TrEMBL record:
Keyword Signal: yes
PROSITE patterns the record matches: EF_HAND_1
Species per Swiss-Prot/TrEMBL record: Devosia psychrophila
Keyword Signal carried by entry: yes
Protein name as annotated: EF hand
Length: 81
């Protein structure tokens, strides 16, 4: 299931280069220290992040990304080694 979701993110046209330049840890992105990353917080770190990609990464449909969901999003955007 996660592979399907992560593949969706790539299909939505996210730029790997843009993510690689802006990728930071979840704690740094969670500027209001709520424990979740809102779309606005994520877009501050990754300006090219679309609402569709954010929604696809929000596996539990909570409206925010957990640290694990954020890590999965970042990993999906990282260049393959």
């Amino acid at each position: 299931m996660k592979k399907i979701i992560l593949s969706s993110i790539v299909v939505l046209g996210l730029s790997t280069a843009a993510f690689a330049q802006a990728a930071t840890d979840a704690v740094s992105v969670d500027t209001d220290v709520s424990g979740g990353i809102s779309l606005a917080e994520a877009q501050t770190a990754w300006p090219d992040l679309t609402e569709e990609a954010f929604t696809a990464a929000d596996v539990d449909a909570s409206g925010e990304l957990s640290a694990d969901e954020y890590a999965a999003l970042a990993a999906s955007a990282a260049p393959a080694s």
